[in-house]
Amino acid sequence: MNDEMSPDDSWALETLAIRAGHRRTHEQEHGEPIFPTSSFVYGSAAEAARKFGGEERGNVYSRFTNPTVHTFERRLAALEGGERCVATSSGMAAILSTVLALLQAGDEIVASRSLFGSTVSLFDKYFGKLGIATRYVELSDLAAWEAAITPRTRLLFAETPSNPLSEVVDIAALAEIAHRHEALLAIDNCFLTPALQKPLALGADLVIHSATKYLDGQGRAVGGAVVGRNKELEEVFGVVRTCGPCLSPFNAWIFTKGLETLSLRMRAHCENAQALAEWLQAHPAVARVHYSGLAEHPQHGLARRQQSGFGAVLGFEVKGGREAAWSVIDATRMLSITGNLGDVKTTITHPATTTHGRLSQPQKEAAGIGEGLIRVAVGLEAIEDIRSDLARGLDALI
Ligand SMILES: *Cc1c(COP(=O)(O)O)cnc(C)c1O
């Protein structure tokens, strides 16, 4: 093994997740080091001048580049199959930096309706203020995407599968639509990660991550990333470097180590989620389960084709509305009542009064967020324990 652990083209995702990205220093360390430094020194005034002027590559200041952050960026770029990755301080900072980098006043975004709540606020409130308007469409309706595109549309933005109903869009078909209209396609790949879905290989131009979720996988740190081609990522890098939403070396190290077990964890998450979805479907108190791993899911076939797993987030509806849903949540003793996901700990929420609480009644109905809907982000505890924690409240409803 040489000092430059540059990815071998033939390496599988599991190998890249462990080996890609780390450039061993002269200390010959085995593990990836943390460089907690704000700035870097030069050997001479002339070297400082060259590095400041951009004539010579190298570290200057950790808002621009940092070796620990670079290790995470190279490793994630290898996993997503992108030319370049730029890490950010959060998932929201990844979206903010992408749009600031690639769009300007007068441009438009077309986005799927069922997006992460803060993404909608960012688009409507803050990009709206900058003169960048967003139109929302039904995630899976390709004709609606195309109809919403205008000559000003520069970006199509989707989260697939959606939260919490597991709706799916055909990424390859959406990329074709975007490119026919000279727009870029960005996919928020937070729910599946490159272990289960590779949007760039399907034709997307940009992948967005909240590293806070499965890339870390244990709920320890907030961070994000954008992956794609050099051309667009150089612009995103410019925003991060100048505006400052950069990732700290400590958090980058946590995510780098998180990636090493990504594939194993995602497989285990999917196994637990599938077993839970099937058990819920058979429970008499449950009216409906939303999980693309179920044969009954309207896009099960598409999800099978474009994903190598169905993810760990599922929604289910209990009979009896809000009162029944709250009673199931309150009867749990182990599951964490929290909106976070992507953790080894299973979490449970009532979307209608939390994550989607700010939507109006008609908006909730359009998004399929009923009062009886419960979302579970399935963790890695023993499936019997997750089931019995939910059975307590569900059995009491029948
Ligand atoms: C959490 C999340 C985000 C935002 O990420 P932060 O790290 O919390 O800023 C964006 N998209 C999706 C799908 C998320 O779940």
Automatic annotation (TrEMBL):
GO BP annotations, alphabetical order: 'de novo' L-methionine biosynthetic process; homocysteine biosynthetic process; transsulfuration
Keyword presence, Nucleotidyltransferase: no
Cofactors named for this entry: pyridoxal 5'-phosphate
Catalysed reactions, semicolon-separated: O-succinyl-L-homoserine + hydrogen sulfide = L-homocysteine + succinate
Pathway: Amino-acid biosynthesis; L-methionine biosynthesis via de novo pathway; L-homocysteine from O-succinyl-L-homoserine: step 1/1
Record has Amino-acid biosynthesis as a keyword: yes
GO molecular function ontology, one term from the record: transferase activity, transferring alkyl or aryl (other than methyl) groups
Cellular component terms (Gene Ontology): cytoplasm
Residues with PTM N6-(pyridoxal phosphate)lysine: 213
EC number: 2.5.1.-
EC supergroup of this enzyme: transferase
Pfam families per the UniProt record, alphabetical: Cys_Met_Meta_PP
Entry keywords, A to Z: Amino-acid biosynthesis, Methionine biosynthesis, Pyridoxal phosphate, Transferase
UniProt xrefs under InterPro entries: Cys/Met-Metab_PyrdxlP-dep_enz, Cys_met_metab_PP, O-succ-hSer_sulfhydrylase, PyrdxlP-dep_Trfase, PyrdxlP-dep_Trfase_major, PyrdxlP-dep_Trfase_small
Reported function: Catalyzes the formation of L-homocysteine from O-succinyl-L-homoserine (OSHS) and hydrogen sulfide.
Listed HAMAP family: MetZ
Family from the record: Belongs to the trans-sulfuration enzymes family. MetZ subfamily.
Quaternary state and interactors: Homotetramer.
Record-given protein name: O-succinylhomoserine sulfhydrylase
Organism: Billgrantia tianxiuensis
Gene name as annotated: metZ
